[in-house]
User: Fold Cyclohexanone monooxygenase from Methylobacterium terrae.
Amino acid sequence: MREPHETGPIQRTDAIIVGAGFSGLYQLHLLRDRLGLSVRVLEAADGIGGTWYWNRYPGARCDSESYYYSYSFSRELEDEWDWTERYPEHGEIRRYLDHVADRFDLRRDIQLGTRVSGARYDEAGNHWTVTTEAGERFEAQFLITAVGCLSSANVPAIPGLASFAGAWYHTGRWPHEGVDFSNKRVGLIGTGSTGIQATPVLAAQASHLTVFQRTANYSVPARNGPMDDEFKAWVRENSSELRAKAREAPNGHPFDFSDRSALDVSPQERQAIYEAAWERGGLRFRAAFRDIMLDKDANETASQFIRDKIRSIVEDPETAEALTPRDHLFATKRPPIDTNYFETFNRENVTLVDLKTTPIEAIVPEGVRTRDTTYPLDVIVFATGFDALTGPLLALDIRGRDGLVLKDVWAAGPKSYLGLQVPGFPNLFTMTGPGSPSVLTNMPVAIEQHAEWIADCIAHLRERGLDRIEARPDAAETWGAEVDRAASATLLPMASSSWYLGANVPGKPRVFMPYAGGMAHYRGICERVAAGGYEGFSLR
Ligand code: N01
Assistant:
């Protein structure tokens, strides 16, 4: 551990960025290389990559397809990088981000192994002072959080964890050296996207895998595979069009939503359309009809199609029934995609424990004790998700003007203007913050839009000799109402156990956090706000 040097010199730059993942890297490039600002990036990890630095669990790969889960700002970058698989594996994404950092000479302004512990706005000096766990102090006019939406690991407070005699891991803090599961009895808690990706890989490695499921989940096959030369050539040829499509799409993916209602076709035709979408696989299953996310009855047809698939894949009827989601509709929680998830429950060495019928009571030295029995385990893997969106921001202990503390301001749930700024916190920008589309989109699209908007905003201030921008309270109120309205226009708030609502973290306010109005619509709003002289913000 580094020695605190609280009394050491304050390091001053024009801007501080917290985080060196997809967001922080691009924001650094724009502010430094386009605007000529001096910038310091502070990153807690010992390497760049953000989410992809930490999430190295077995089976970890992206659910967006590689050729558009990447930056679009540089055609040269795009042309020189070759993805190997349809869905990039975590190591490949890290290699890509390492390449980006080298190609744009970003590393010299990134300080690794530096966890921010506080950020305080000084009204008189109009600057932010950022302190780190090691006691270093940094000062800058602009503070930009690029801390990710899913970076604060949620390890449930199950009694007895400290007494467990084996090893345990959270998927979002995976050891870099990997974990050897051979001849191990492994317990996996959680069946969200992560648990669903990890299950087949763990089952293939462990002597026995016990999956502890609290909420049964829908999942659609990913249909991963190598990017062959023909497909790569097609991507290169159509790159501009694909990128434009992603930018104009509601969720940042370059695929078309059907213009038909699931209720306007015959049952036979609907079945054929779902079968084709299932065969094609991936997140675009949702696009099979235009109203899957808008109309309960339309959604029910998709939900039922997947329930039938589960029953046809899983051989043991009791296990199939336990794996069948009935308490929420398809994609009202973030929909996972998988490679042989349901098939894995046909293996001899895999057991499903339905926590709805037999909840976990405690972790004991030998394993997990549910109401009915104790499961002896050598390793427990927590795929229990994250304190999403607000967790990583509140961990920074951000204090604005007049002694405002972000934790208090957000005690009843996050409020922001456009998910970009919070009243009372001048010159603080929250990239992909709550109130912006973020997790409802293909993230690089949302990230590029925020990075560019923030860079343009700072350029606007500088060109006019202004040095401060702050969201107005009335604008944040109006935006909060728009975030609520947009969510209510969809089926998304219906899933009561969803992390979009903060429901997975005990005690967290139940507020639908991301903006569900669509990425393209949101982009238009942000552009109009800027074109109108930053309406809703106070500039001086
Ligand atoms: O986390 P989750 P995740 N006892 O919160 C269960 C992104 N992602 O890491 O549903 C028992 O979705 C919990 O149960 P319930 C993606 O956006 C992206 O899987 O709350 N179980 C649930 O089953 C995703 O949505 C990729 O009842 C407990 C699970 O743990 C997001 O990350 C890949 C429990 C948590 O599911 C989060 O996914 C992976 C307890 N006390 C993830 N507490 C890409 O490919 C929680 N659970 C880009």
Q: What stands out?
A: The pocket of 3-acetylpyridine adenine dinucleotide is lined by residues 62-63, 150, 156, 189-195, 197, 212, 214-215, 334, 355, 360, 383-386, 439, 497, 499, 504 (CB under 6 Å). The longest helix spans residues 443-463. The radius of gyration is 23 Å. Residues 1-5 have pLDDT under 50 and may be disordered.
